[in-house]
Amino acid sequence: MSKGIPAEGARSGLYRSPADVNTLRERLLAQGFAWFEIDCSQVRTKQQLLEIFARTLSVPQTFGYNWDALADVLQDLSWVPTQGHALHLRNAGSAAGRFGGEWNVLLEVLARSTMYWKSQGREFIVLIDEAPGLPEWK
């Protein structure tokens, strides 16, 4: 690896969305990434959240609609062959408040998925709006 060039998968992680998500999306799309928008504003239940993930990611019909199934899907994505994957969870602040402990489970699933892809040398970036506890994407 050359000095100053990040290792494959080095950007994989869970981040607070930057102020200008559109510019980042355009840049990642130009690099061959798949970009997925998950709008959390209308989500009221865990089932609705899992359904929006399933719909957005076009998961296989065998999807089990539970946290383990979401983890399995996020650590596969073989039906979306790209240079990398980026998930953007919009309007997440209000959803985090509504879900309480379940939101922490989602964050754990997402964090483990980013670690998995990083260990595979692949980029998997998760950006979450209104997430003050996460490092900001730079």
Would you kindly provide a written description of the structure presented here, covering whatever features stand out?
This protein has a single domain, classed as Barstar-like (Barnase, Chain D), CATH 3.30.370.10. It is 41% helix and 17% strand. The chain has 5 helices and 4 strands; from the N terminus they run E-H-E-H-H-E-H-H-E. Strands 1-4-3-2 form a 4-stranded parallel beta sheet, sandwiched between helices. Helix 3 runs parallel beside helix 5 and helix 4 packs across helix 5.
* Rg for CA atoms: 14 Å
How much is the average pLDDT? 90
From the 3D structure, determine the CATH topology. Answer: Barnase, Chain D
Treating each run of at least 4 consecutive H or I residues as one helix, how many helices? 5
Beta-strand percent range: 15-25%
The share of residues in helices is 40-55%
Give the arrangement of secondary structure elements.
Elements: E1 13-16, H1 21-30, E2 33-39, H2 46-57, H3 67-74, E3 84-90, H4 92-99, H5 101-119, E4 123-128
Core attributes:
single chain, 138 residues, alpha/beta, Barnase, Chain D, four-stranded parallel sheet, 5 helices
Quick recap:
With 138 residues, this protein is an alpha/beta fold.
